[in-house]
Specification:
There is one protein chain. By secondary structure, the chain is an alpha/beta fold. The protein has two domains: 5-378, ANL, N-terminal domain (Rossmann fold, 3-Layer(aba) Sandwich), CATH 3.40.50; 391-490, GMP Synthetase, Chain A, domain 3 (2-Layer Sandwich), CATH 3.30.300.30. It has 14 helices and 27 strands. The strands form six sheets. It has a nine-stranded mixed β-sheet, with helices on both faces. It has a four-stranded parallel β-sheet with strand order 4-3-5-6. The protein is globular and about 65 Å long. It starts with a helix and ends with a strand.
């Protein structure tokens, strides 16, 4: 079954129900269903079934139409973050090897493979000849989401129709999503939280309201928007919810329509959750956990009576019918289930070797509490979670080490009350080099969430007896206000 079969059903059952809202623009289910068909017709005519199609647009109605049109044609969508530097975008495109890259207007100058470009507006003039979505094998790929890679380069997490449909159905049923719901959508489409916004919601007949991009910067306006549009459910990251708890003026904006808040992507500081759940006493809060490779494999319905400001909240119990076990030697959480990814997409093809044994190792250290719930204790490797984004320090190191002024560098995470973690970089400069020589080029090579928030300059990186970098010593340096033999620079991102 195709992932978008639910939309096809809703377009027949609830044709006049509003499906998508973006500022002053709205589409009902019938209009949305009709608008995706010209896109699908063009891709079908070009023989794109089973192929990867990149989408280079901000989240919103046009991007949603394009994604559904791609799936309608039996192809697989690759959402790209248009805020990323050109070098990173071209790397992903060259690695993924999509048949086409769809965006707005003329081909952008940054795109190296200009022959792949398609203008959405021209596609929308295509005669719509197909009326039903293409049949899909459950194991056919539906999406490829590129994340920060431990090998120093981005890697594509390949998700099948089976995996995404399993999550979409579970979430819709678990959180009682129906045609009366109004869903706030803020997650970018390259972020796995968007699977809920795009598929759980629309397959249930709910309406999706795209939040203006500027609102997270002004939390009191954000809460006013939630109130104005009578939002009933919102899936977002804890860092933004923490900001709302502190600055959202919820005492004057009670959000009477809101019934469910889902959060994922990073640890929610318990004091902030206590504050927010107290401000919204009628709202059900759910902690959703899982790497992109599993989407969601654990969840916890927040029990306000158990919240302790000195203790982290559990990640809960198995979600989406997943099987979970903890490696007895390492404490790593292992996951087997229908949500699990199909493998990594690299150099235009699927590498399924990481999932041959059926269990995916999350890289997270987990235990179980007295209630039998799973509890998170951090990463076994070096991966960071920054404002919900997965960030591999090795990828940042690879970029920094390519810069002419750099002799060596090491990247690690430092605690940030707003975003959970931020990258920080210790660098060794070549003779005559300075911080100013590489900070500007670095901004052109890495997206904002991967930019180091702080730099220190050292004569040499601290090393263990085996010659490896001593990351514990670096953590101590970053905790010191003025590290010995180091220049110190705070970044204002």
């Amino acid at each position: 079954m195709n992932l978008i079969s639910g939309l096809y059903t809703q377009s027949q059952l609830s044709a006049q129900q509003i499906a998508l809202t973006e500022e002053d623009r709205q589409l009902n289910y019938e209009q949305f269903s009709l608008a995706i068909r010209p896109i699908a017709a063009y891709l079908h005519k070009q023989g794109c079934s089973g192929q990867c199609i990149a989408v280079v647009m901000d989240r919103g109605i046009d991007a949603a139409l394009t994604i559904y049109g791609i799936l309608f044609a039996g192809a697989c969508y690759l959402p790209l973050d248009i805020k990323n530097p050109a070098g990173r975008l071209n790397y992903i495109i060259n690695d993924a090897q999509p048949r086409y890259v769809i965006g707005h207007g003329a081909c952008p100058s940054w795109l190296e493979s200009q022959e792949k470009w398609l203008d959405l507006h021209q596609l929308q003039d295509e005669p719509a000849v197909t009326t039903r979505p293409a049949d899909a094998n459950p194991e056919d790929l539906a999406a490829i989401l590129y994340t920060s890679g431990s090998t120093g380069v981005p890697k594509g997490v390949a998700l099948s129709h089976r995996a995404m449909l399993n999550f979409a159905r579970w979430a819709s049923k678990t959180f009682n999503i129906d045609a009366k719901d109004r869903i706030a959508s803020l997650a970018p489409f390259h972020f796995d939280l968007s699977v809920f916004d795009l598929f759980s919601s629309l397959s249930s007949g709910a309406s999706v309201h795209f939040m203006p991009a500027s609102l997270p910067l002004t939390p009191n306006k954000l809460t006013a928007w939630l109130s104005e549009f009578a939002i009933t459910c919102w899936y977002t990251v804890p860092s933004l919810l923490s900001f709302i708890a502190l600055k959202g003026a919820l005492a004057t904006k009670p959000l009477s329509s809101l019934k469910t808040i889902l959060f994922a992507g990073e640890v929610f500081p318990t004091p902030h959750l206590i504050r927010l759940s107290g401000q919204l006493p009628a709202v059900n809060f759910f902690n959703l956990y899982g790497p992109t490779e599993t989407n969601v494999c654990c969840y916890w319905h927040v029990d306000r009576t158990r919240l302790n400001p000195d203790q982290a909240i559990p990640i809960g119990v198995a979600a989406c019918n997943a099987l979970l076990k903890i490696d007895e030697e390492t404490g790593e959480l292992l996951v087997q289930g229908q949500n699990n990814f199909s493998g990594y997409w690299q150099k235009g093809r699927l590498d399924s070797s990481p999932v041959k044994n059926g269990w995916y190792g999350t890289g997270d250290k987990i235990s179980r509490n007295e209630q039998g719930e799973y509890c998170y204790h951090g990463r076994l490797d070096r991966m960071l979670k920054c404002s919900g984004y997965r960030v591999e320090p090795a990828e940042i190191e690879a970029v920094i080490n390519q810069l002419p002024a750099i002799e060596n560098c090491a990247v690690l995470g430092i605690t940030d009350p707003a975003s959970g973690q931020r990258p920080a970089a210790a660098v060794v400069l070549k003779e005559g080099g300075s911080l100013a020589d590489f900070i500007k080029p670095l901004r052109e090579k890495l997206p904002a969430y991967m930019q180091p928030a702080r730099f220190i300059v050292l004569k040499a990186l601290p090393a263990l007896s085996n010659g490896k970098t001593d990351y514990q010593a670096l953590q101590i340096l970053f905790k010191t206000d003025k590290p010995d033999s180091a220049e110190n620079l705070e970044q204002g991102f």
